[in-house]
């Protein structure tokens, strides 16, 4: 394979849209371009690189190994060209620009809004877009170059992701200060299972680790409340409905003033995840995003060091 195809060519644009949408028909609808034209351009692109870029399956198209390499190159090149243009226009100075952040919901309630507000107090010309999505979706958006920075929980390394900073993120039990278990130094899952539980959906690291740990210990878990909204689970606990599960930083700014306590869970399986600040591998962030990344890491360090 020779030099990579031009990143701004029509063929590359169509290729990336098919990779994103998973089918030529869907890409055709999104781009308002005939499916035959997209198919033709992709065929030309495959001939140019000398490899199949997609695996054709009954339910759609997925990137081949060669396609994944080309897509990663194209996304990085596109983002780098945007960064260079921004710097040429004067946005390299840490006074203007746009920073995009994806995060899991717990961090979007208090931690990130507070960090963004403090950062903008010093750099009022910088604007932000904050997206709250499931943890795996955070990493996907970072790897695809859809956002500059991701803050999420992770259980294992992910291809296409650079881990800028990482911290242990054990799962804790959140309950009212007058709950029967509130004075305990630590708890076991078997003890928690005897009380009403409020749990998130199965696409969260909390639920995944809980289900694995409970199954390993043959502990039946029948939650009193399940929800895809973390705020509802915490308020269920705040109103005396039972126990919810969280991380320290997801509630660190206000759980005590709400009359809540955090109790560690002793089961080893509840300690294996990590909190990560993620960026796209091999990408150079715009200066505004670099500045906020450093600010956010310092904010997290300060909160974790607090008693």
Counting DSSP E segments of at least 2 residues, the number of strands comes to 12
Principal-axes shape call: globular
Number of helices: 12
Distance between the termini: 56 Å
Compressed to H and E, one letter per element, the order equals HHHEEHEHHEHEEEHEHEHEHEEH
- CATH fold-type name of the largest domain: D-Maltodextrin-Binding Protein, domain 2
> Structurally, how many domains make up the residues?
3
Mean of residue pLDDT values = 87
Major sheet: 5 strands, mixed
Give the % helix: 40-55%
Q: What is the structural class?
A: alpha/beta
Low-confidence stretches: none
Rg, Å, rounded: 23 Å
Spatial order of strands in the largest sheet: 4-3-5-12-6
CATH class of the largest domain: Alpha Beta
Per CATH, the superfamily of the largest domain is Periplasmic binding protein-like II
Give a nutshell description of this structure:
The chain is α/β, with parallel strands linked by helices and 307 residues long. The chain contains twelve helices and twelve strands.
């Amino acid at each position: 394979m020779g030099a990579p195809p031009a990143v701004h060519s029509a063929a590359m644009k169509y290729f990336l849209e098919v990779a994103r949408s998973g089918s030529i028909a869907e890409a055709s609808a999104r781009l308002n371009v005939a499916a035959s034209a997209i198919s033709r351009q992709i065929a030309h692109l495959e001939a140019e690189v000398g490899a199949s870029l997609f695996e054709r399956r009954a339910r759609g198209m997925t990137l081949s190994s060669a396609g994944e390499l080309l897509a990663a190159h194209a996304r990085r090149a596109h983002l780098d060209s945007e960064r260079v243009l921004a710097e040429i226009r004067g946005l390299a100075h840490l006074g203007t620009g746009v920073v995009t952040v994806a995060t899991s919901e717990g961090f979007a309630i208090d931690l990130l809004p507070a960090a963004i507000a403090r950062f903008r107090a010093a750099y009022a010309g910088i604007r932000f877009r904050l997206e709250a999505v499931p943890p795996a979706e955070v990493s996907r958006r970072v790897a695809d170059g859809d956002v500059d920075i991701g803050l999420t929980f992770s259980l294992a390394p992910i291809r296409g992701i650079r881990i800028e900073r990482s911290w242990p993120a054990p799962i804790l039990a959140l309950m009212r200060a007058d709950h029967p278990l509130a004075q305990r130094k630590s708890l076991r899952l078997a003890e928690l299972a005897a009380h009403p539980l409020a749990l998130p959906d199965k696409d969260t690291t909390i639920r995944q680790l809980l289900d694995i740990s409970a199954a390993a210990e043959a502990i039946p878990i029948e939650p009193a409340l399940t929800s895809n909204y973390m705020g509802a689970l915490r308020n269920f606990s705040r109103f005396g409905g039972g126990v919810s599960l969280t991380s320290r930083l997801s509630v660190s700014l206000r759980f005590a003033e709400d009359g809540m306590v955090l109790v560690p869970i002793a089961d080893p399986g509840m300690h294996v995840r990590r909190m990560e600040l993620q960026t796209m591998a091999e990408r150079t962030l715009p200066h505004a995003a670099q500045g906020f990344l450093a600010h956010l890491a310092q904010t997290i360090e300060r909160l974790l060091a607090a008693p």
